[in-house]
């Protein structure tokens, strides 16, 4: 549920912090006081499209933060895990927008995309009002709502369908992979060519690098030879380092009888001479190796082209080519023995086909049984709400080949249809025109599915559109019923609904230093505000008395609900 809402620089709100509670939270106030700003702020932080016009005049940015508590369920936990966010005691959604049009969305401090924020918020809060943040108008949600309404029987049938679908789909993929005998023959022919091409080339690891190095040597052979010859002459030429070291040793040998330390120096000179002589020989070997024939360079280029062509065809590198070869060899062996495998898969496919077809039929039958009860409940709710003569139906689309079109949820395509008036055809929910009818129908739906849709907070923005009199009392009761299971926030003009509140906020507009502001005040005594909604001038004695009677009526109704649960 929403435990806290913090708004900064949205329309007439400079800074506002609100605490909401369990049960029915009612927001009321004069027309133009700013009730819609609260809903706009909620829509904004929950990911609704917004533009810079929301930002308070004179400010550079707007920020809204909403804090959810007692929010965890399986779907939300999985969603958070998938986006790398740990489940905590509270869940904080935050969105900031600047005049430059920049958006910043955060979930528990982690920056996320607007799409990720929307995906999570749809599982947390459902807003019914001017904005299209309504899960029940999403046709894709109708099947899951029906399944939830159907309870354990549908759940068990659905689980069997999911398990069989998983195996059934795997068999289909395997059969498609093997193809028919002609396809297998063609595939084997291709694989054999690829395998033979790679093996015949006999490329070894790092061969390309070695060839590139050798090519570089050939291209610079004359430079290398010139350098080698200079070095050899300096080391072992007529007056090179070897000769000079030898002469130095002889010179010290003539005086070693007088200075014993010269013996060690003579030995070191000899070691140096031997080492330098060895270096000279290695340089000579390098120089000798430069004797390439005229076709060596051409052979290297051809080999490099062969290697690079193979790499381009089979993965881009030696290791990727080897992996391709391993996989191709494995697939070739499988295809070589595929006939028996395919026959076994076909036999299992036919067996699973019959099982799957039967399970789909059972699931559809159970859904249609649940749909009849669901239709009856909806019509009953609508009758309570003054929409007598309304027809409601759960429409199952015709599916030509259920097995082929099925997914893990079965083959059924479901949509809720309604006809608000006798003699009119059934239409999709989106086609309902009347605001009053829409409000009442959505309320009826929500009253039924509030226990099963998994959303913990429901927001009703002026649900009283087109409603008055006795129906207003029924609407208040329906919202109260929902609020026993969920947190409900309701913006209203109805005194009947306001009297049913567990927490009542009054929204007011005021001017300070030439600027207009909106504020919300939690009411410890809601009677004067209920009297104002009734229409009493200056809260007349009659209006106050009527408000007190209405509040008592609401308290009695809530008490009756408590007694029913005992």
Overview of the structural elements:
The chain has 566 residues and is α/β, with parallel strands linked by helices. Helix content is 55%, strand content 17%. It is built from 19 helices and 15 strands. It has helices at residues 35-45, 74-82, 114-121, 142-150, 152-178, 181-201, 207-219, 221-236, 241-253, 261-288, 296-313, 318-336, 338-384, 402-405, 435-449, 469-485, 495-499, 527-534, 541-565; strands at 2-10, 13-19, 24-29, 61-69, 90-98, 103-107, 110-112, 125-128, 391-396, 414-419, 427-428, 457-461, 487-491, 503-512, 515-522. The protein has a six-stranded antiparallel sheet. A six-stranded mixed sheet has the order 8-12-13-3-14-15. α4 crosses α13 and α18 packs across α19. The longest helix has 47 residues, at 338-384. It is elongated. The relative contact order is 0.12.
């Amino acid at each position: 549920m929403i435990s806290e809402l913090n708004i900064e620089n949205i329309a007439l709100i400079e800074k506002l912090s609100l605490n909401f509670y369990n049960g029915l939270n009612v927001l009321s106030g004069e027309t133009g006081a700013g009730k819609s700003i609260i809903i706009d702020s909620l829509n904004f932080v929950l990911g609704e499209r917004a533009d810079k016009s929301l930002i308070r005049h004179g400010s550079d940015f707007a920020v809204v933060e909403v804090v959810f508590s007692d929010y965890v369920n399986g779907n939300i936990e999985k969603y958070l895990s998938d986006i790398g966010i740990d489940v905590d005691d509270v869940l904080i959604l935050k969105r900031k927008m600047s005049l430059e049009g920049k958006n910043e969305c955060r979930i528990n401090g982690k920056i996320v995309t607007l799409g990720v924020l929307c995906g999570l918020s749809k599982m947390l809060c459902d807003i019914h009002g001017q904005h299209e943040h309504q899960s029940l108008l999403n046709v894709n949600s109708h099947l899951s709502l029906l399944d939830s309404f159907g309870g354990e029987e549908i759940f068990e049938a659905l689980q069997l369908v999911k398990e069989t679908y998983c195996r059934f789909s795997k068999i289909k993929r395997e059969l498609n992979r093997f193809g028919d005998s002609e396809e297998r023959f063609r595939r084997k022919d291709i694989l054999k060519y690829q395998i033979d091409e790679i093996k015949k080339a006999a490329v070894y690891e790092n061969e390309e690098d070695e060839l590139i190095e050798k090519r570089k040597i050939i291209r610079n052979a004359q430079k290398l030879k010139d350098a080698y010859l200079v070095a050899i002459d300096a080391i072992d030429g007529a007056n090179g380092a070897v000769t000079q070291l030898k002469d130095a040793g002889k010179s010290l040998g003539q005086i070693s009888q007088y200075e014993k330390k010269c013996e060690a120096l003579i030995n070191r000179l000899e070691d140096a001479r031997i080492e330098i002589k060895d270096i000279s020989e290695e340089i000579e070997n390098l120089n000798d190796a430069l004797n390439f024939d005229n076709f060596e360079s051409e052979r290297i280029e051809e080999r490099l082209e062969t290697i690079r062509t193979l790499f381009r065809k089979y993965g881009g590198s030696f290791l990727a080519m080897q992996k391709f070869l391993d996989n191709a060899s494995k697939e070739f062996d499988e295809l070589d023995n595929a006939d028996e495998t395919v026959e076994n898969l076909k036999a299992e496919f036919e067996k699973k086909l019959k099982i799957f077809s039967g399970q789909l039929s059972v699931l559809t039958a159970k859904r249609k049984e649940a749909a009849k009860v669901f239709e009856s409940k909806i019509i009953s709710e609508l009758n309570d709400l003054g929409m007598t003569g309304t027809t409601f139906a759960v429409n199952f689309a015709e599916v030509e080949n259920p097995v082929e079109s099925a997914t893990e949820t079965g083959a059924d395509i479901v949509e809720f249809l309604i006809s608000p008036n006798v003699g009119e055809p059934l239409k999709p929910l989106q086609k309902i025109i009347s605001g009053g009818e829409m409000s009442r129908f959505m309320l009826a739906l929500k009253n039924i599915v509030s226990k099963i849709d998994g959303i913990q907070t429901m927001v009703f923005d002026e649900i009283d559109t087109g409603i008055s009199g006795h129906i207003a009392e029924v609407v208040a009761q329906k919202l109260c019923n929902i609020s026993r299971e969920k947190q409900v926030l309701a913006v209203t003009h109805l005194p009947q609904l306001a009297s049913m509140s567990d927490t009542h906020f009054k929204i007011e507009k005021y001017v300070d230093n030439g600027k207009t502001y909106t504020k919300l005040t939690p009411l410890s005594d809601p009677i004067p505000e209920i009297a104002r909604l009734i229409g009493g001038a200056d809260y007349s004695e009659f209006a106050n008395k009527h408000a007190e009677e209405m509040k008592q009526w609401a308290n009695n109704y809530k008490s009756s609900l408590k007694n029913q649960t005992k």
